[in-house]
């Protein structure tokens, strides 16, 4: 792999560029984004230069789509005439079924391998990029067939994911979307709903007496809606089911505030919280 094109040089794209360089990649990293985003990415050292989509993709062995989901879908519709035959196209989209389906329909001259790094921050842009963002974090790959992982391009990509410290997990796109609806999307919506509820009810002095628990629980509420709009739209069915289960659990908690039945819920929840915090 000699040349990487990063389409979308925000937090994830710029962090990927920095991570590659820190891991020893000495090829060319070209960015495609807005003029401001490119300037920030160059300043951060995440990319070597900016270029148009056509120029960057025509040179790249690896094309990394790190845009919002809507923009990833749009880019996939225009990529095939531009890409080098034999190149690998991958992405960082937080939902996978719609993206994988779009790639299957529109890409013919190259390989596509869906991906989702389970990493991020509430801050945006290349200025917040971090070369260690993916270390010890899950990076899901969603091939249509197992053989797609064994091409030369896919093996090389997986090698670099391991070099930057990511832990690769293989899922099909449907299983990915069903899983992250519970483990990621539900967490975001629960945090948003909690913060919104407190905001609706809190008096002038309420925030002054808030504990660290509220701060911890509302961290995800800092995430902007424009980043989540496409996620909610492309994983609606699974998110709806996750929300229904969560609402049922909240109703159970409400109905048992005066009973000891919540003891089991506390124990089960504490066990999961402890497992999430154990080193892997």
Molecular structure report:
The chain has 280 residues and is of the alpha/beta class. The chain folds into two domains: 3-171, Rossmann fold (3-Layer(aba) Sandwich), CATH 3.40.50.720; 175-277, Orthogonal Bundle (6-phosphogluconate dehydrogenase C-terminal fold). It has helices at 11-22, 35-44, 53-59, 69-79, 97-106, 152-163, 173-201, 212-217, 225-234, 236-255, 262-277, and strands at 3-7, 28-32, 49-50, 62-65, 88-91, 111-117, 138-142, 167-170. The protein has an eight-stranded mixed sheet with strand order 3-2-1-4-5-6-7-8, sandwiched between helices. α5 (97-106) links the parallel β5 and β6 (111-117). α4 (69-79) packs parallel to α5 (97-106) and α7 packs across α10 (236-255). The longest helix is centred in the C-terminal third of the chain and has 29 residues, at 173-201. It is globular. The two termini are 30 Å apart. The model has no long low-confidence stretch (mean pLDDT 95).
| Helical content class | 40-55%
For the largest sheet, list the strands in their spatial order.
3-2-1-4-5-6-7-8
Q: Which CATH first-tier class of the largest domain would you pick?
A: Alpha Beta
Order of helices and strands: EHEHEHEHEHEEHEHHHHH
Please tell me the overall pLDDT: 95
Q: What would the principal axes of the Cα set say about the shape?
A: globular
- In the CATH hierarchy, what is the superfamily of the largest domain? NAD(P)-binding Rossmann-like Domain
Structural class: alpha/beta
In total, the number of strands is 8
Oligomer: single chain
Please state the CA-atom Rg, rounded to the nearest Å. Answer: 21 Å
Work out the strand percent.
Answer: 5-15%
Instruction: Using the coordinates shown, work out and report the CATH topology of the largest domain.
Output: Rossmann fold
CATH architecture identity of the largest domain: 3-Layer(aba) Sandwich
Q: For the terminal residues, how far apart are their CA atoms? A: 30 Å
Task: Estimate nothing, just give the exact number of structural domains.
Answer: 2
Helical region count? 11
What kind of sheet is the major sheet? Answer: 8 strands, mixed
């Amino acid at each position: 792999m000699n040349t990487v094109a990063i389409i979308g040089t925000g937090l994830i794209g710029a962090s990927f560029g920095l991570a590659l360089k820190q891991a020893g990649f000495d090829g060319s990293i070209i960015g495609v984004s807005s003029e401001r985003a490119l300037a920030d990415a160059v300043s951060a050292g995440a990319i070597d230069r900016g270029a148009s989509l056509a120029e960057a993709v025509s040179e790249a062995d690896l094309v990394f789509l790190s845009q919002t989901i809507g923009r990833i879908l749009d880019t996939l519709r225009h990529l095939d005439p531009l890409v080098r035959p034999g190149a690998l196209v991958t992405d960082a989209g937080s939902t996978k079924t719609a993206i994988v389906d779009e790639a299957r329909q529109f890409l013919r001259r190259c390989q596509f391998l869906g991906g989702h790094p389970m990493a991020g921050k509430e801050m945006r842009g290349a200025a917040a990029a971090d070369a260690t963002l993916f270390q010890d974090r899950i990076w899901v790959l969603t091939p249509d067939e197992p053989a797609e992982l064994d091409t030369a391009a896919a093996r090389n990509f997986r090698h670099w994911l391991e070099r930057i410290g990511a832990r690769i997990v293989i899922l099909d796109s449907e299983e990915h979307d069903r899983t992250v609806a519970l483990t990621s999307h539900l967490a975001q919506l629960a945090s948003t709903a909690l913060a919104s509820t407190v905001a609706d009810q809190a008096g002038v002095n309420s925030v002054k007496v808030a504990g660290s628990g509220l701060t911890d629980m509302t961290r995800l509420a800092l995430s902007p809606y424009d980043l989540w709009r496409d996620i909610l739209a492309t994983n609606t069915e699974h998110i709806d089911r996750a929300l229904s289960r969560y609402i049922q659990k909240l109703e159970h908690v409400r109905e048992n505030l005066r009973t000891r039945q919540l003891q089991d819920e506390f124990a089960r929840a504490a066990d999961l919280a402890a497992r999430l915090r154990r080193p892997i």
